[in-house]
TrEMBL record:
Residues covered by region (Disordered): 1-27
PANTHER family for the chain: PHD-TYPE DOMAIN-CONTAINING PROTEIN
Species annotation: Paragonimus skrjabini miyazakii
Lineage top rank: taxon: Eukaryota
Composition skew (Basic and acidic residues), residue ranges: 1-10
Protein name: Uncharacterized protein
Length: 175
């Protein structure tokens, strides 16, 4: 048991040590050094390296600002939860990010939440947004309006009929 702990400490000290430039002329990337440990030691360090490699290869998340369109509410709130909420436990930061990603009427209705304690302010802001923009009775008329207004679709207009069908599916999924 003690031998296994020493082995883990050796790996950690190796990962944290500066590279030996005499061994290689290649530039040393810390992520590559951690990933190379996977072949020497299985465990949390190699998993961390793999995770870092995956994350660094992903494109940057782009979260659109939410302003007033209830049809965009659920997409925004799910994106916010996966991009911000899951990555910080600090309610003050969550609230600041929520305010940063809201605009127009959405910002106006939640900016007063900053005077509350961070946790209650954040929870209140989420509740206000959900009540104002995320209710089915608020979203449904917006979708109905988007489907009934605009050009008249003729029976031989395949593109127009396909677009209408997609709008109807989005409406059903949102409600």
């Amino acid at each position: 048991m003690e031998h296994g702990c020493n082995k883990r400490l050796d790996v950690q000290s190796y990962v944290n040590s500066p590279p030996d430039r005499a061994l290689s002329n290649k530039p040393t990337d810390p992520v590559l050094r951690i990933r190379s440990e996977r072949h020497r030691e299985s465990g949390s360090i190699s998993e961390l390296g793999n995770l870092l490699s995956i994350c660094m290869g992903l494109p940057k998340k782009e979260l659109k600002k939410f302003s007033v369109n209830p049809m965009d509410y659920w997409g925004f709130i799910r994106g916010f939860m996966s991009s911000v909420d899951h990555y910080t436990d600090d309610f003050a930061n969550r609230l600041l990010y929520l305010i940063q990603y809201c605009d127009g009427e959405a910002l106006d209705v939640i900016k007063g939440c900053t005077v509350l304690e961070p946790e209650s302010g954040y929870n209140k802001a989420i509740s206000i947004l959900q009540r104002r923009f995320g209710q089915p009775y608020v979203i449904a008329p917006c979708y109905i309006g988007s489907m009934t207004e605009g050009c008249i679709i003729k029976q031989d207009d395949a593109r127009g009929l396909t677009d209408l069908a997609e709008k109807m599916k989005m409406c059903a999924n949102s409600l």
